[in-house]
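hey can u run this one w/ manganese (II) ion bound, need the structure tokens asap thx
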Amino acid sequence: MRRAIVSRKSKETNISVSLNVDGNGKVTVKTGMPFLDHMLTLLAVHGVFDLTLKAAGDLDIDRHHTNEDIGLVLGQALDQALKDRKGITRFGFAYVPMDEALARVVLDFSGRPKLVLRDGRGGGKTLSSSTEYSWGDAEHFLESFARTAKLTVHIDVLAGADFHHTCEAVFKALGRALEQATRLHPRVKGIPSSKGRL
Ligand SMILES: [Mn+2]
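ok here u go:
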């Protein structure tokens, strides 16, 4: 089983994550931000990971620190669970619709952190939220996650009007693409790179 347990405590946040990449989608998430709980549950269920994540943070200031640190710790847990990335499929992609919204996520466990987020509907900042959680928060979360997971991630929002639907499509697609990329390839014995390391 590829799993990791990571805790991180600072003056701003206190976060613990238990992640099993070879899980069944058993998820418990409590971040103090119900919308993010919803998104992380979708990510883990569609990634078919087991995830327990608890976070306490200075939400009295705003969501910024807690949201960012959860992304960092979750990415770190994923990186640790995969160890040297031996035997993985490495690349993954998924298109996921959610009613009128459509997202595409293409990713590579490259070892080089990079998030590219494109809004094909034009004007990436036009999404607004019925909850307090914003599109900017989602972007910041995804950047933090990609950084410590050492992932190249390209996310395209191909369609979407409703904020909730659009976010759901993105997080589900990310989960599905991660599931694909982390899957052990039956014929890959070593680290799937011509350089010999990721
Ligand atoms: Mn929903």
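The chain has a mean pLDDT of 94. anyway lmk if its weird
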